[in-house]
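Annotated sample (chain length 155).
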Amino acid sequence: MYNSEEDLGQSVVKAFMNFKRAELQNFKVAGLKRSETRFLFMLHQGLRHADHEQGMKVSDATAILRVSKPSVTQQINALEEKKLIIRSQDPVDKRAAYIQLTEQGKKVVEEIISTFHKNFEDMTLFLGKEEMERLISLLDKLTEYLNKKAENEEV
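Output written by the structure step:
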């Protein structure tokens, strides 16, 4: 089917790009950018494990998302403007800030989760349970390989 490893490699890249494009079309939440959706979902997950009543530290969000502090600040500003999150200052350490979801933000996160579940149910119906499990297994295996490769190259 493929003439060379180069053709195979190009086909893998093309498949990933096509999947990403299709995923962006199907996992949209009205009125939000993809990055905002991702941020809200991450915040929701982080708040489930947060041990501070003010919410999640902004610095923790930066670490989880693996993006720069200015990028996180930009996301926070946009989501605050949409009244989906609130930011507060640590009363003890004035340099630290916390973020948490507003009631409206919690409703939006419920919609995000519902949209994700519906899309994954649809994909499972399309592929069948066995193929979906195989896809997950292959993606997990590939992710493990790429993570190990990245770790070895960083050393």
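Annotation: The chain has six helices and three strands.
Annotation: The radius of gyration is 19 Å.
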